[in-house]
Amino acid sequence: MTTQQQINIAAPRSGDIDPKYIRQSASSSSNWEMFKWLFMRISGPILLVLIFTHLFTNLMLGDGVHGLNFGLVAGKWASPLWQIWDLVMLWLAMIHGTIGVATIIDDYTKKDRTRVAFKVALYLASITIVVLGTLVIFTFEPCMTDAAGNLLDNSPSFCFNQ
Amino acid sequence: MSTATTAQQSPPAESKSGRGTLYRGKEGMWSWVGHRITGVVIFLFLLVHVLDTALVRVSPEAYDAVIGTYKNWYMALGESGLVAAVIYHAFNGIRIVLVDFWQKGTKYHRHMFWTVMILWVVVFGAFFIRHMMLVLGG
Ligand code: HEM
Ligand code: HEM
């Protein structure tokens, strides 16, 4: 008998893990896992900048939350900078969050059927929100008119100067 | 008798200080639990947030009516809770990235955890004071 007993614990992602502990088939495995792992770590720091700026401009500058209204959104989205800012923030946050929540579902659901049900609901919700949010940014109309084509009274002031 | 068993009976002094493991017990595990919970909270908020922002496509009145319900002290507390979660998740996320990519990351992971906590108190404290003053003042 040797003095040092060998204990072998496979490192995560080493590929040495007994297949019975792995859910997905070997073929669909590593590249996608690696992509998700990297995506979380690249999108995270970018999201920090995007979201901190978003919170700072909307809650800390000027009157803070009291300053938020339709006019403020119209003013921001008149600039392509904020349109792209919000678009990138929407997509990155939703993909990052969806990958994250999918991991959590994998961790806590034991039965295949429950897992699939939760994930289908998650993906449907995520796709709906990303599509809706994208449409809202691109189809936004700051100077809305009524059926007769007159500007609404409470349109932001710059609409009346045109 | 193998030495491995002996080692199990008297754990190395190091594990007491939490240096023996990165993830189980102590800062490593609690920071992960916090990261999970805040991640889910932010995600659920974002789903609702995109829906309420979508009201700008309905009419200025509809948007202003819903945003108007945010402008009081109890909603301000809710917003503060969300911002507290965002700040923690963001700083702790940077710590995770550093542990994984920075050569000395694993060595300094406890220092970085406490740095995250201190930064969190400072940044959230500043936010909270200004936010509550704006809400209550106007
Ligand atoms: C209580 C805190 C928050 C307030 C008061 C707030 C306010 C707003 C406002 C006024 C807009 C309209 C456009 C703009 O200002 O750029 C907006 C849009 C947006 N916000 Fe926030 N926000 C908050 C927190 C967050 C957080 C934490 C996130 C990210 C997780 C976020 C993500 C977004 C996105 C993606 C849009 C664009 C929505 C769309 O495409 O229709 N917001 N927010
Ligand atoms: C503010 C900047 C952010 C940073 C720096 C950041 C960073 C990270 C990192 C590094 C991870 C770890 C992934 C892993 O362990 O493999 C993570 C996980 C996660 N993030 Fe974020 N993130 C940010 C914003 C967000 C937002 C806006 C959401 C929601 C929409 C979100 C939801 C999640 C979720 C649900 C997880 C999974 C947690 C788990 O598996 O335990 N994060 N984040």
UniProtKB/TrEMBL annotation, chain A:
Cellular compartment(s): Membrane
Any one GO CC term of the record: membrane
Domain of life: Bacteria
Transmembrane regions listed in the UniProt entry: 38-61, 81-105, 117-140
SUPFAM superfamilies found in the cross-reference section: Fumarate reductase respiratory complex transmembrane subunits (SSF81343)
Keyword Membrane: yes
Single GO molecular function: metal ion binding
Organism in which the protein naturally occurs: Enteractinococcus coprophilus
Protein name: Succinate dehydrogenase / fumarate reductase membrane anchor subunit
Coiled-coil regions listed in the entry: none
Keywords carried by this UniProt record: Heme, Iron, Membrane, Metal-binding, Transmembrane, Transmembrane helix
Keyword Transmembrane: yes
From TrEMBL, chain B:
GO biological process: tricarboxylic acid cycle
Cofactor section: heme
One GO term describing the cellular component: membrane
Region (Disordered): 1-20
Record keyword Chloroplast present: no
Pfam families: Sdh_cyt
Transmembrane stretches, start-end: 29-51, 72-91, 111-129
Subcellular location: Membrane
An example molecular function term from Gene Ontology annotations: electron transfer activity
Cited InterPro entries: SdhC_prok, SQR/QFR_C/D, Succ_DH_cytb556, SuccDH_FuR_B_TM-su
UniProt keyword annotations, A-Z: Heme, Iron, Membrane, Metal-binding, Transmembrane, Transmembrane helix
Compositional bias segments (type: Polar residues): 1-12
Family under the similarity heading: Belongs to the cytochrome b560 family.
UniProt name for this protein: Succinate dehydrogenase subunit C
Annotated source species: Enteractinococcus coprophilus
